DNA sequence: CCAGAAAACCGCACTCAGTGCAGATTGGCA
DNA sequence: TGCCAATCTGCACTGAGTGCGGTTTTCTGG
C-alpha cells in the first residue's frame, strides 16, 4: 500500500509533467528565455498553480533533492560496528552516487550545464548542498559522540564534501558533454585521498 | 598618485553611501522589507542609477569581495622557497582574516546574520566563495606545478575551504551576536588539523 | 449514493527586481 | 571655452513571486 490516493497520483503526475516540460524548454529555448508561464502552459496548468508545485524556477532542476539527502542520512544510520566517521561518509557518497543517475540522464546533464552557466541555478544548488551538509553533520556527530564533537564533524564533512566538489569542479570544468566515468572515478579517489587520508584506517579501498 | 580624479572620488563616495544606507535600512527594517528604491533614495541617487553601482541587492552585502580575493592570490604569489601548498593556503587564509574585519564591524555582523536568514544572500555568498576558490585553485596549481595537478589543487583547496567553513558554520550556528574570537581560533585550528594534517610538514603551528 | 469538508486549481491584481532606451548633466581634457 | 565621454535619471517594460477569493475536484462518513 503506497500513497495511491487519486489526489496524490495526479499530483505526482503533474509534478513530473512540469519537470519534463521545463527540461524540454530549457534545452530548446534556454533557461533565461523560458518563462514560468510557458512551462505551466506546456504542463497544462495555470501559471498560478505552478507555485504550489515548485517555489521557484530553479527548483525545477533539483526535483528529488530531499530523496537523495535522505539516502545519505540512511547510509550514515546503517553504519557497521567497525566503521569510523570517514568510512561512513565514503559509503554515504557511494550510496548517493549509485541510486541517482547523477552523471547520465537528460535532466542531470542539463543541470550540470546550467549550474555552470546560470548564476541563479548555481546559487540554488550550492544552497541545497549546504543544507544537506548541515544535516549530515548533525547525524554524523550524533552517530560518533565519542570521536567527534559538532565542530569536528563540521570540519570533517566540510573537508570531504569540499574536496570532492572541488575536484569535480575542476574536472567538469569547461568541457560540455563528454564525461568519462573513469576520469570521474579517478578524481573522486584523488579527492578522498586528499581529504580523508588521516581518517581512514585501511589506506587501500577498492572500487 | 592614486585614482583621484573627481569622477572616481565621487563614484567611490556614492558607492559607500549606498552601502551605508543599505546597512542602516537592513538593520532597522529588515532585508526583505527594504526596497532598492528606498536605498537609492537614502543615498540620494535615482533608482535606475543604483544598478550602475551594484548588479543586485545582495551584492550590497559583499562590497569588497574582489579586494579580499586579490589579497589571497597575492599571498599565494608571495610564497617562500620552503613552503608547500598547504602552508601557502594557511598563510593566505590568515592574510585574508587580518586585513578585513570580517567578524567585527557592523556590515560584517549584519552579513553573517543575513547569510543565515535570507536564502538569496546565502546563495550569493556561496557563489562568490566558489568563484574565489576557483581562482585560488588555478594560482595554486600554477605555483606548484611539480606537486599538484589541477584536480589535486581543486581537491586540496576544496578540503581546506570546506573544513574551515564547515567548522565555522557549526560554530556560528544559531546564536546571534556573541562571537568569541578564542572559540573562532579554536574552530579554525580544528578545521586546519582535519584538512591539512597530511600536508603540513611542521605539525605544530603557533598562533 | 449523497452531503459536506478539505484540498487543489486558477484568475486577478499587485509589488518588486532588473533591463533597454533615450535624453539631460557633468566632469575630463585640449 | 568647447567638445567628448562618462554618468545620471526617468520611463516603459518583462518576469518572478505573493495574497486573495471564488470555483472545481477529491476525499470521507453516513
TrEMBL record, chains A, B:
Residues annotated to bind DNA: 35-54
Keywords, alphabetical: DNA-binding, Transcription, Transcription regulation
Keyword Transcription regulation applies: yes
Identification of the protein by name: Transcriptional regulator, TetR family
Species assigned in the record: Actinoplanes regularis
GO molecular function: DNA-binding transcription factor activity; transcription cis-regulatory region binding
InterPro entries: DNA-bd_HTH_TetR-type_CS (IPR023772), Homeodomain-like_sf (IPR009057), HTH-type_TetR-like_transc_reg (IPR050109), HTH_TetR (IPR001647)
Record domain HTH tetR-type: where: 12-72
UniProt cross-references to Pfam families, sorted A to Z: TetR_N (PF00440)
The keyword Transcription regulation appears for this protein: yes
Amino acid at each position: 500500500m503506497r500513497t495511491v490516493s487519486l489526489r496524490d497520483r495526479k499530483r505526482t503526475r503533474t509534478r513530473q509533467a512540469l519537470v519534463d516540460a521545463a527540461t524540454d524548454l530549457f534545452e530548446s529555448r534556454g533557461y533565461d528565455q523560458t518563462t514560468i508561464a510557458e512551462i505551466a502552459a506546456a504542463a497544462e496548468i495555470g501559471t498560478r498553480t505552478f507555485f504550489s508545485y515548485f517555489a521557484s524556477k530553479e527548483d525545477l532542476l533539483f526535483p528529488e533533492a530531499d530523496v537523495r539527502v535522505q539516502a545519505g542520512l540512511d547510509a550514515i544510520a546503517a553504519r557497521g560496528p567497525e566503521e569510523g566517521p570517514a568510512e561512513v561518509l565514503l559509503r554515504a557518497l557511494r550510496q548517493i552516487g549509485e541510486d541517482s543517475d547523477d552523471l547520465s540522464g537528460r535532466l542531470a546533464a542539463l543541470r550540470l550545464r546550467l549550474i555552470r552557466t546560470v548564476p541563479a541555478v548555481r546559487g540554488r544548488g550550492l544552497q541545497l548542498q549546504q543544507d544537506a551538509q548541515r544535516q549530515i553533520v548533525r547525524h554524523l556527530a550524533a552517530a560518533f559522540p565519542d570521536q567527534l564533537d559538532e565542530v569536528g564533524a563540521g570540519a570533517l564533512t566540510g573537508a570531504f564534501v569540499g574536496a570532492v566538489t572541488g575536484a569535480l569542479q575542476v574536472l567538469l570544468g569547461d568541457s560540455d558533454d563528454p564525461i568519462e566515468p573513469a576520469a570521474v572515478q579517478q578524481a573522486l579517489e584523488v579527492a578522498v585521498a586528499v581529504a580523508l587520508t588521516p581518517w581512514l584506517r585501511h589506506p587501500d579501498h577498492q572500487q
